[in-house]
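WARN  no MSA supplied for this record, continuing single-sequence
INFO  ligand: alpha-D-galactopyranose
INFO  echoing inputs
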Amino acid sequence: MRIKLLLPLAASAAISVYAYDTPTMGWSSWNTYRVNISDSLIMKQADALVELGLDSVGYRYINIDDGYFGGRDKSSGRLLFHPTRFPSGLKPVVDHIHSLGLKAGIYSDAGANTCGNFWDNDTIARGVGLLGHEEQDCNLFFKEIGFDFIKVDYCGADGRQSHQIYAYEPRDRYTAISNAIKATGRDDVRLNVCRWNYPGTWVNDVATSWRTTGDISPRWESVKRIINENLYLSPYAGGGRYNDMDMLEVGRTLSAEEDQTHFAIWCMMSSPLLIGCDLTTLRPETLNLLKNTELIALNQDQLGLQAHVAKLSPENTYVLVKDLGEKWGTRRAVALYNPTDSAYTISVTAEELELEGVTAARDLIAHTDINITDGVLSAAVPPHGTRVYSITGTRRIPRSIYEAEQAYLSSYQEIYDPIATGTAFYFPLESASGGMVVANVGHTPSNDLQWRDVRVDCDGEYRLDLDVTGKADGNLLLFVNNEAAIKLPVEGEGPRRLSSTVRLNKGTNTVRIASTGTAPYIDRMTVNL
Ligand code: GLA
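INFO  complex generated
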């Protein structure tokens, strides 16, 4: 849902801006309890969330995951609830959650069975998914019981994790479910797609968040893998839509340093924040971390942006960055992330952060202000550690380098083999700028790469240099805003630079790359300012 706000500018003028839903925050049952949940357990967790004051810092959703199903009524098809785990059904639980001023979330599957039915031997959860029951179940969940959120899993629609041998098309299933939710008349229900990979750009029209990886577990390797899989997905977040890095394992078995990295990076990436531990036995240090309002503010920032990689060091440490409050403004969030097993000092200059006039930064974990005298933000970061800052300059330096791995790919998806489907993808290449390129652009006009945020301070002619590498034939097609294509011949193999002088407008421009033949790997674009 988005709310239109009218902001008075002056007595006679007003501009409208949109305030979007920020990432979902709350608690979910799966990580600690799997299918072993009950009405009293869920209500106790909701009570604890309020007693601990977690609601007052933004955690508002209590989400019941897999485990509540009790089959279907044979004649009416009505969904039944588990006879011993939820003997009085779900309505009293949801009423209790709502009476606390919280919102309630539920779980289902896009196919016939749930994942717990397949993987956790929850035999009763067969035939309980949304397949063929979209309207009936959505009416029950959202009109009758009053749920406010639904996570829709995919085991039952995936031939390999269900009791049928055929598989469905995720786009068709989730679109049907989204339409059934809308048909209930509720426009405030949040739909989370759980297809364990970035599903495709279609998902933006269907859901408010989507899982981008397989399931998290409370081990460092799992947290590190999920961060790694999300580093180049920032183009697909924003405007109230979010990449979901999975529910939090904070407060379980990770070390204090790892818990901190896990939470801080989820905040930087604007991932939903769903606590996954037992709230009735929470340690004080866990509560402290989960209530770090300076980190939460990054996650709940109205721009809803996901941080991107600003710098990758030869040691494989990262600097992540995103704008806060205003796009292209002078306030930015910066994370120094060390996924390695050794300690490193990680440094970034104000210039690399596109800022001028930086004299101080705010450490959002230590809650201290630090002076910056030499224009360098630097910290010793232990193995698996992260340090996070907000940093403000006096001027934003216009950007001239646009990495391909920060661009939006119109056909991007991670479900199918991109070579087989002919869709573009991000690809690590050590010799490339930023260590990444985009491969497989072209074949069809819509399989393009877009830099949607090419920013210049003045109208005028600018030379664009495009660095590409790898085998190619035909022409690259360069489109600026809605202008006709400029053809750039690309024959050859090694690293090469293609140039063209184009007209850019003051403010934000879109530069789009497509191809008439086999496109080379696209490394980066330089706008000569
Ligand atoms: C899948 C999801 C998990 C959880 C379980 C429930 O594995 O990815 O997050 O919902 O199903 O069975």
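The pocket of alpha-D-galactopyranose is lined by residues 30, 65-66, 114-116, 153, 194, 215 (CB under 6 Å).
INFO  checksum written, moving to next record
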